[in-house]
Amino acid sequence: MFRNGEFGPQLVLLDQGRLLVQQRWIELLIREGLGSFQDFMSTDKGEILGQRADRVRMRIKLDSPEGKKVFYLKRYDRSGWIRRLLMALGVCSRSRGRRELNNIYRLQKAGLATLVAAAAGESGVNEGSFILVEELSGYQPLHEFLESFLAESDRTEMLRGKRELAKALAKYVRRLHAAGMDHRDLYLCHFFLRPEEPVQSLRLIDLQRIKRSWGLRQRHGFIKDLAALNYSADHSGISRTDRLRFALEYFGTRRPDLRQRLFLRAVVRKTRKIGRHHRKTQINNGGTSS
User: Fold this and answer.
1) pLDDT above 90: percentage of residues in the chain
2) CB under 8 Å to 51, separation ≥6 — which residues?
3) 11-134: which CATH number, 3.40.720, 3.30.460, 1.25.40, 3.30.200?
4) Whose C-alpha in 133, 226, 280, 289 is 20 to 30 A from the C-alpha of 160?
5) Which residues are catalytic?
6) Domain map of the chain by residue range?
7) Considering the entire predicted model, what is its pTM?
8) Phi-psi category of 237—alpha, beta or left, where left has phi over 0 and alpha has psi -120 to 50?
9) May I ask the CATH architecture of the domain 140-284?
10) Distance CA 104, CA 235 (A)
11) What is the largest CA-CA distance in the chain?
């Protein structure tokens, strides 16, 4: 259950602590029949985008005085008995919905642009949880932007644009890691931007797996993040020079020292491992590896 003021004054406590709602959306959500924790957990208003045994992701359109408002609902069903026991003992966070909300606010506290939470809910260890976020209107995934940008731009514009994006992306990831967080799924598709101002509008999504760690676990998490970016860059027209520019900006140096070079070698090894895993998955799923 949530506490009043736990996530700042803009998220208002409702439904006896089971529900937090962004103040500006309270009237709209209640009018649309989403005024309690159970309303969100049982609603069928939205288009289902993905579904697994323990969670469902939906796109919900609501009519407001300003026009259609679009939200994304991620609903987590009750956890397995091991997770419920750990939650009851206080070993892990109360719910996955709360964890994702925590991650949104951790990123914002670190000065990193990300999703905006419209609502969140939890109700004990046996009843699941959810998070509702606002749509990133006018945004598109970074890898899709790169595909069209590289195809449509002249050479001078393309080189300048890639240089600026590499630096902006490196600064974002550097700040993420400086705050002690690793994403654990940091592919280009999880960065969104507005095509008219790509460098200034980078935002990170898919936040449920972000965690904080220390020591060797932290180093491993940072290597995995950079390897995921490096692997997805293989399919997005990113050159060796672009990668070097990213690395130098990430380290904040003009020339990497020995420790940094060893770190980059570990990133390359992890990138190859990710590639082998993806090819094996394709084959096992009936596809073909390239």
Assistant:
1) 74
2) 57
3) 3.30.200
4) 226
5) 185
6) 11-134, 140-284
7) 0.90
8) left
9) Orthogonal Bundle (1.10)
10) 28
11) 60
